[in-house]
Amino acid sequence: MAAAGCAYAADASYYGLDSALINEAPRLTSANDRAVAVLAQIPNSRPQSARQEFDRGTVPDATRLEHMQLVLKRSPAREAALNRFMEQLHDPASPQFHHWMTAEDYGTDFGVVLKDIETLTSWLEAQGFAVSGVYPNRMQIDFSGTADKIRSAFHTEEHVYQINGRQHIANASDIRLPTSLTPVVAGVAWLHDFQPHPKNRVPLKRTPLEHVRGKPQNDLSPRDFATIYNVLPLWSSGITGKGQTIAVIEMANMNPQDWTDFRKTFGLDYFGGKFSQIHPAPVGLSKNNCTDPGRGDDGETLLDAEWSGAVAPDANIVVASCAGRSNVKFGGMDGFYAALTNIVNSKTPPDIISSSYGVCEADISLVDELQVLDIWKQAAAQGISSFDAAGDTGSVSCNDRVPLTKAGLNVDNNGNSPYIVAVGGTDFPDVLDKTTAQYWNPDVSSDYGNARSYLPETPWNYSCANSVIYKSLGYSGPLEFCNSKDPSVSLVDIGGSGGKSTLVAKPSWQKLVYGMPADKSRDLPDVALFAAWGDAPFNHGVITCTADTRCSPGLPKGYEVNGGTSFAAPAFAGIQALVNQKARGKQGNPNPVLYALAAKQYGKPGAPNATGLKDCASDNGNTSGSACVFHSVTRGNNAVPCKPGSADCYAQAGQQVGIISMFTSRLQAAYPATPGWNFATGLGSVNAANLVQAWSDYLGAH
Questions:
Q1: Which of 180, 437, 517, 679 is deepest in the core (most CB within 10 A)?
Q2: What are the tens digits of pLDDT across the range 186-220?
Q3: CA distance 162 to 169
């Protein structure tokens, strides 16, 4: 829309909702109302991590922040109507089931009325900001301006912060807004430059001999993944993701040749999936907020693109990327959220989205969180199925892979949305179990697979707190092992993440499954897949093709190994493409169906299904029940070592290393893998063929 003086079209409902809601009266009278002088503080509108001890003073007044977002809020009546509608969209018994919306529908029926948007636009311009426009969802107004304008309009200062060796800018206090605006305005998002970071790491390099001559590490090729998670029967029956588009949201491009090499090397070029890269421009804005990021650090991008397409080889893979912030002078909405917001609000949104970037809940403000939550909600309303990497730092998502965390228990901000599937991580313990010969052939096939079948899984966790590791070495507990001089001790916090959200309440469908705690929080993860990086003592990773180690038939130059929940999320997005093809269309939020299927297999809280829990335990390996949809992971944990005296850290007197614990008065490593749902692996991993069929049966039965 134009910033000022534009002619707004009249509101009209596409879905015929209640006329009183569609013709809702404006809630703002005028930007110049007499109440404008009365200010209201917006609670939690600054990042918690921008603490006073890190403060290095104010930024220059001329420091410009591009693409800040005035985050809007619905009337209570429209919010309630939207929540009812979201339930109806995913209820097979409802007349509204799978009646997906467009972004414009979403804005018309559930956004802020246009007259109020005009009033807010005029107010922003009167404060000296440049307004780019409003998105089709009518829930955020894009604007830019300098630090002095932020100070006068929002009554806060932009400061420089030095945190973990990095310089950031952020508002130093909660913002204040005219009381007359608060019925419609939730606050201002992205008054800082904390941005999501990719969850992958620098890959390991394997030599040719390590793969071709027996592949002792048994790293996963596409054929291995398809064997272990039972994708092959789907491919054989023509369920390959045909007709589906998966968008991976990134902040770097990749070399298209890497995609081509990967497909050719692993026998996937037979399928018809196409690859493309876009920099999605915003709809409704006069100024572009998405620029070409270049290749930069493309490890995350190629991992996401190659492997989502490896699981669904006939699906079309779209890399949607925007440049991130380059230095401390630039705040405002970062490249990841620009790409996400733009593609969801586009005229041609994808069927599925995979996200492998994250930032912990404490690193953004509550207003940022509200904007992000609504984007994921909007995506689900449009039929998009979304997947997010739960994190790679065990139960302490706010830690930055620093030994002996002080961060305490926490989770990431994307996966906490009820409208996204948070994907955790597992590993294969066959090396420690001495069962490698049972589950892996000594030689590889022509497409580099040597997995024999499904094999037991444990939570991915490289730390000394992992019970699978310390028990294999003869130690009785994590404190004994982590405080020993054993050369195998690892004080890192590397593993699949999970835990309780402090910001988002538990959705109704998450209460259905055995193992789910009776808390009020959105609990993570929802599901899990293999995610390990290839390190000892488990020695399994995921093969990728890169410009540094070019793949070609025979792998004469070796290959690179990566992993993380950055792999698990796009892989599960690929599985969803198979579900969509079988179900003949978009499925929206997968969680209600996933949890309904899990409740049938595991039972409900207080009423376990003993047979399902026994037959579908992951430790059964290749003797798991033939009807199991989920593999219940029941051994190991995602706990990590911590600094004694820090949050959620248990240690005994005199010990230099503690363990992240559910209690500080006694040790209960956080979090253990237990039957049914758990914080370490969620519902567990899946048998893809059984999931696709059970999903189809579920829809048919309703």
A1: 679
A2: 999 999 988 887 766 555 666 554 444 444 468 99
A3: 9
